[in-house]
Design a protein that fits this description.
The chain contains one helix and nine strands, in the order αβββββββββ. It has 162 residues and is mainly beta.
Length: 162
């Protein structure tokens, strides 16, 4: 008769599982914390093959998930924002995150109530010639070259929210 015994579970196994889940929970919590979500885009973009560059104006409608005066978007670090305007045409203050240049924060003149709609217009341009500063390191998600171009969504070639 053969008896099979279930091996004892190592006492450190639950701690290992918990430690692996914590970083994921922190990332997920950051995504959930977004206060504005993009709902509609109007984008006018020009691709310049000889300069391997993109110039664009993106008009984006955001819905506030909670009261806030800060709109945070993701935009490819190679794309330099020159202007962000409100729906009334007023220039707004904005800045790139010093730690993560993929993030751009726009300061609204006052807090917006939850479930309200805000329209912002972003003017930006830059080089998209290689995988340098790609949102996914080492992978070219956008490229403009003399014979063509491709602009994939994960490249963040227009302002995105979670």
């Amino acid at each position: 008769m053969l008896l099979l015994r279930k091996p004892a579970r190592p006492p450190w196994l639950p701690l290992l599982v918990l430690s692996l889940l914590l970083p994921s929970a922190a990332v997920a919590q950051d995504v959930i914390h977004e206060t504005f979500l993009a709902e509609h885009y109007d984008i006018a973009a020009t691709i310049e093959p000889s300069g391997q560059s993109l110039s664009a104006i993106a008009k984006v409608d955001f819905r506030a998930k909670e009261a806030s005066s800060l709109v945070r978007v993701e935009l490819h670090p190679n794309l330099n924002v020159t202007d962000v305007k409100s729906s009334g045409g007023k220039a707004l203050n904005f800045e790139r995150d010093a730690v993560n240049p993929l993030l751009l924060t726009v300061n609204l003149p006052s807090a917006v109530a939850a479930n309200s709609l805000v329209t912002l217009t972003f003017t930006y341009s830059g080089l998209l010639a290689n995988e340098e500063n790609s949102p996914v390191p080492g992978i070219r998600l956008a490229s403009i070259y003399k014979d063509g171009a491709y602009l994939l969504l994960p490249a963040r070639w227009f302002p995105l929210t979670a």
